[in-house]
Design goal:
This protein has 9 helices and 10 strands. The protein is an alpha/beta fold. The strands form 2 sheets. A 6-stranded mixed sheet has the order 6-7-8-3-9-10, sandwiched between helices. The chain has a 4-stranded antiparallel sheet with strand order 2-1-4-5, with helices on one face. The chain is globular and about 50 Å long. It binds adenosine-5'-diphosphate. Adenosine-5'-diphosphate (ADP) binds next to strand 2 and helix 1. It comes from Achromobacter veterisilvae. This is ATP-binding cassette domain-containing protein.
């Protein structure tokens, strides 16, 4: 059974059907690309998955259990984590302490939180700034720190919405290497990104949305070559 089963999701904003019956299965350990032109409903769908928006119809099952309509806090506890919205960096606390506090809040003991924090800081190349207050970090470093905080206790499914937007190329490299490594270790992701080279590089499979529907679903290279997909992007 797929880890995440998404079916018939509909979300209306007034007269606009932002998501119009979208569905897809996500297997445990998959790194799925979610692509499509601007306004095709990708962010709205992620917001439904993370509980930030209530769907008008459809279902979302995690391990076979319906989780549609649960609030973001419940979903986070179940392991459905939307990045950059669920975490907060405290500016007057060190990068290291930010991660430790986050780990403690997620139920780790002090030794475990400390160990994970050090591992993550190393992996995200933040070791040299770990004792600086988070407020002194660059925007990109802060984003990496927030990113790391989400993995103090790895979620079942990590939902990433344009994680590379406005991130320095070197940090983008660090972040994509991190995503790849974690995925190789079994971490499940849904990645929304306009950065096609990164999507091609990271995601074996992609779903392309258009006008709130799934236009194509399959191997990324194949999806990108589909005439309907090319046409949708040309109309952007
Ligand atoms: P994408 O992430 O693919 O760019 P979105 O999910 O952000 O697309 O948006 C899908 C459609 O829904 C767009 O037409 C957008 O303008 C509209 N939309 C998104 N959020 C809202 C909202 N809160 N209120 C009204 N319309 C919205």
């Amino acid at each position: 059974m797929a880890l995440l089963q998404i079916s018939g999701i509909q979300k209306r904003f007034g007269g606009l059907l932002a998501v119009n019956g979208a569905g897809m299965d996500v297997a445990d350990g998959e790194l799925l690309g979610l692509i499509g032109p601007n306004g095709s409903g990708k962010t709205t769908l992620l917001n439904v998955l993370s509980g930030h928006l209530a769907a008008d119809a459809g279902d979302v099952r995690l391990d076979g259990r319906s989780v549609l309509g649960l609030d973001p806090t419940r979903l986070t506890r179940l392991g459905v984590l939307r990045m950059f919205q669920m975490t907060r960096v405290f500016n007057r606390v060190s990068a290291y302490d930010n991660l430790v506090v986050c780990g403690l809040a997620m139920g780790l003991d002090e030794a475990g939180a400390s160990r994970r924090a050090l591992e993550l800081l190393e992996e995200l190349k933040l070791g040299h700034v770990m004792h600086l207050d988070a407020g002194q970090l660059s925007g990109g470093q802060k984003k990496l720190l927030e990113f790391g905080a989400c993995f103090m206790v790895p979620p079942r499914v990590a939902l990433l919405d344009e994680p590379f937007a406005a991130v320095h190329p070197i940090m983008k490299e660090t972040m994509s290497a991190f995503i790849r490594r974690r995925n190789q270790g079994g971490q499940t992701f849904i990645l929304v990104s306009h950065d096609m080279p990164v999507v091609v590089d990271l995601c074996a499979r992609s779903v392309c949305m258009n006008a709130g529907r799934v236009l194509a679903d399959g191997p990324t290279q194949q999806v990108l070559r589909e005439p309907a997909v090319i046409e949708a992007y040309l109309g952007e």
